[in-house]
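Extended Data, record RNA polymerase factor sigma-54
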Amino acid sequence: MALELRQQLKLAQQLVMTPQLQQAIKLLQLSRLELLETVQQEMLDNPFLEESSGDDAVDPAAQSERRDGVEEEVYDKELAKDASWEDYLGEFASTPRLVQPREFEAAEEISPLEARYAAKPTLEGHLLWQLRLSTLTDAQKEIGEVIIGNLASSGYLQATLEEIAEMTMSTPDEVRTVLERVQFFDPIGVAARDARECLLIQLKSLNYDRDPILLELVQSHLEDLEAKRYKPLLRKFKLDMEELKEYLDIIQSLDPLPGASFGGGEPTYVSPDVFVYKMGAEFIILLNEDGLPQLQLSSLCHMDMGPSSDKEKEYCAEKMRSASWLIKSLYQRQRTLYKVVESIVRHQQPFFEDGVTKLAPLILKDIADDIGMHESTVSRITTNKYVATPHGIFELKFFFNSGLELDDGSQVGSESVKALIKKFIADEDPKAPLSDERIGEMLKDRLKVNIARRTVAKYRTALDIPSSSRRKEHF
């Protein structure tokens, strides 16, 4: 078989992901804080991009007279009008621009700066502060520093007395003396070796160590109390249930993890992208643009730079094109976000009226069909975005949930079912907790929905609620 070269012409369609399109897609899925960082970085990298002061907006007519041939392809009249975002909020808000700025501002948002920012104390720093204020000698304080340095995040001591004695060139008895002082620092019970010692220290601090039954329960029967094996304890100590319950109330008031309140895990603070307020019978949607720069093309675009090489002209054209596309992409991002939230409010109006128990089933396709966009666009714009509602702050993904078929042919959202399960269990009798089967019957009576026991168990597990046997109190 002979090999030969042959030329062929072939027509085909394909989608080319240009850098500008990739940038627009990336902006859609950025969170609010990530968007601010991206815009600030672009302003540093692009000399033709600057922040508008709001009162120095450039006249679009004057801009059009200064354009040369290169600018014509990257900076049209429509963009010049949109480059200043002075009127941007009025276009995408549900109310006129003049009534927006302060009318809907929540009281908690007007807190002073010092009330919002404060250094979080650490367990080690809190204990060292008490150690330096104590009456211990300098040598004992050195031992105390080593003890504090060997504490776990829970507050328990991770080293033995012998190991600490070796590190401080002292004796185990000297270490024990300092350890007993540290264990009564705030929080009481810190530097204990195990849970029993921690609870015993707290009992001693509260002067409960004079009760031998209480001490015996903590020293030898914590596992029985955890497993709710009460009958053997009643026989052993000759108690009735009311007396045992009094002891249990005391033990449950103690803190087995004294260092947990100083945990190293920092809370995650959420800045809502959108605010939804109720005004009369209508809901008002406001985009959160606090801190977001109002971008415009720099005045450098219209300056005569004099003779320049083709490479310099190409660089300037590319940077102007990039700046123009970023402004358009930000405009499109905010426009898409507003349309998606507006559609969600329409579909989930019972939720915004009455809360999570009225959350309706919703999928991405419902919103995509409503606003005329692709499902992937809706998925990207709802990623890492949060909305402040009259019932709290929720991620936009929260509003998309599966549905359960009701007897009348309608549907109810799975999140609504979970909220009802949580409410039923919160109101149950601790001595006779509701079984999954009973919860299913209550859901059928309330919602007219046939839900299997295993489905109730699945939702209960998702809510991190134990089974009825583990919730039961033997009193």
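Summary. The longest strand covers residues 274-279.
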